[in-house]
Amino acid sequence: MPEIIKLDFTDLVIAVALMAITIGLSAWEKLGLEIKLLTATGRTILQLMVLGYVLDFIFVLDNAVAVLAILAVITTIGAIIARNRISQKIPLVLPLVWGAMFISTALAIFYTNYLIIQPQRLFEPRYVIPLALMVIGGAMNAAASSGERLVKVIDASQLEIETHLSLGATPLQAVAQYRKDAIRASIMPTINQMTLVGMATIPSFFTGQLLGGVKADEAISYQIVVLFMIAFANLLTTILVTRGLSRQFFNSNAQLIR
User: Cα-flanking dihedrals φ and ψ of residue 238, to 5°?
Assistant: First the structure.
């Protein structure tokens, strides 16, 4: 297949003009989104350019330590974003979310690289970084969604929880149904994506591989692996986050902390 067409500075300027049109449409419809669209455009350009230069540098280094370092930084940023959505008042939320995201991503990447892709080196940057970034992004959203839902439901159901406790239920038993509901709600978008993929939606990873010159059947194989990785990591992340959060609402005497 022919090599991908390279985009130069002029092409990117023309792409920015598309966002200018988008901002113009917002102004025309008086949506009030102009500043947010402009900010999003600027951040997209800046953040992706920085990420591109950093990844180019890491690929040149070709070092496992550098790969782990950039993934740790991105995991930390993702954990902070998820923590901010869940709650900044509950103690230990940040390390809890970070640990859940790290464990789920590490297991997904190790399983995929060691048993499926089997590159010459386990920490091959070309495979580890793109796959890990997609898994981390999904885990971040799953952690934020499940944690935010669980915290709100527990805050609104204190009387019911205390009733369960008074009847002899353990803290985890008292919030078990809330945990299950939060996990189900956060994992449903992933299930829906898997259900509709190839019919109503085409994943950006698959599209990117096609643009890069990869044959369709090979791109599909990688997309299947990616979706399964994300499903595993998202579910494991939500299980760990909701279990850890549940414990934060009770003291050592199994009493609900208001």
Answer: -65, -35
Q: Output the pLDDT for position 1.
A: 53
What does the pLDDT look like over 204-246, one tens digit per residue?
777 777 766 778 778 788 888 989 999 999 999 999 999 999 8
* Mean pLDDT in residue range 11-22: 92
- Torsion sign across C-alpha atoms 79, 81, 86, 90: positive
pTM of the model: 0.86
What pLDDT is stored for residue 258 in this prediction? 62
User: HEC states along the chain?
Assistant: CCCCCCCCHHHHHHHHHHHHHHHHHHHHCCCCCHHHHHHHHHHHHHHHHHHHHHHHHHHHHCCHHHHHHHHHHHHHHHHHHHHHHHCCCCCCHHHHHHHHHHHHHHHHHHHHHHHHHCCCCCCCHHHHHHHHHHHHHHHHHHHHHHHHHHHHHHHHCHHHHHHHHHCCCCHHHHCHHHHHHHHHHHHHHHHHHHHHECCCECCHHHHHHHHCCCCHHHHHHHHHHHHHHHHHHHHHHHHHHHHHHHHHCECCCCCECC
**Distance between CA 217 and CA 209 in Å, rounded?**
11
Q: Is the pLDDT of residue 147 over 70?
A: yes
Give the phi and the psi of residue 256 in degrees, each rounded to 5: -70, 130
